[in-house]
Amino acid sequence: MTSPAEQLLPGTRRALLHRVATAQAEGRTPSLTAAVQRQGQIVWDGSRSCVDGHAPDSDTQFRIGSITKTFTAVMVLRLRDEGLLDLSDPLEKHLPGTGTGDVTLRQLLGHSAGLGAETTAPWWERTPGSLRPTLADVLGGQIAMHPPGSRHHYSNPGYTLLGALVAAVRGASWEEVLRREVLEPLGMHRTTPRPQAPHAGGWAVHPWADALLPEPAEDLGLMAPAGQLWSTTADLLRFAAFLAEGDDRVLCAASVEEMKQPSTPPERGDWNGYYGLGLQVIRRKGRTFIGHTGSLPGFLAALWVSAEDDVAAVVLVNATSGTAIGEVAADLVDIVAEAEPRIPEPWRPLPEIDAELLALTGPWYWATRANVLHLAADRGLELRPVNGQGRGARFTARPDGTWIGLDGYYAGETLRIVRNDDGTVNHLDVGSFVFTREPYEPAAAVPGGVDEAGWRGLGD
User: Fold this and answer.
1) Residue ranges of the Beta-lactamase-related domain (predicted)?
2) How many angstroms separate the Cα of 313 from the Cα of each of 233, 344, 345?
3) What's 10-339's CATH class?
């Protein structure tokens, strides 16, 4: 039997090639390279170039701009998981003297710290980092453009601060920490702060003529944590696999999942996307994508992962503008997911059954709302409404005999089994809500009590 992650069907491969060829031609970009991954394996890569015989491949470096921010966020979460800081800590606690007041690490990660979007002039992406040798030079007094935590306002200087935080806590440069703690464990040997051959050159394409202008590739200095990195499609798909499931050598699955949660409510008119902690999340055509886009003069990049489909795509181009890079990458995921839907894993029974938990499964009622409790692996429980209307969640077991909600309305809430004196189950308590075996069961501890006359008809 062949693996579901084997090479794609010819029709799917041609559709992918057509999409990238169209993007390169219509976007008028000197070159474009792309790759698709399914179930952790690269199943397609392709490229187009304006120079015959010189198309880039999966080992050609392009600059990835703000995708760099996701790497910086991973390093901050690692520090948190090691107990060296808390995301609610003010930056000043660990990096004094920045003048940012009570701005927290979580706010910086989610771009809600109220800092300016850019540094002071000159344009930092097109000038050497030596022009901004200190954090004060980066911030330039642009503090509290918005009240911290009040709204999403993308801030490149905010990620400079986070990079400086990583260096200060680790006692090593941002580049060294990145290499040692993220890139090497994930096998991303072609992701580097400075270009290494083979790499593409960055170009600007005239908006009204088919003419080129070379773009400078500056070392961004302190701004590096916001957009310095160069990478390849092959390396970025390794990173995509990590973003899908986590990797305990770098960051556990629970912490990666935390990165995908909204850091601030979406703004009016922007309900199909939000920013997490170093990750962008968009909802498009019924599919959820997590990842990031990036741009620097001469380059555009996009990385998207659809966890439901277990498909990821990366697109890299060497032009300052002209290509809707995020749309192209999402289209590649759509093409594969729709043409060759994910084949589900076979159903298998649990390896062993806990008889006490098995007795808890089946229908439970919150007031008159019917729910079903399912037994999952590792003593996990899943509570779902029968008709799809209502509140549900997955729960994981705690050592003290309770369960904690993992998602949905009851995320973080506690599920307890409340027993009678003889040990039989009276009800389930979920965040103070009483779930009974029958609607308003008289023998259960229903708050407010149950009318002694019981259920009745209209004429009773």
Assistant:
1) 20-336
2) 9, 20, 22
3) alpha beta
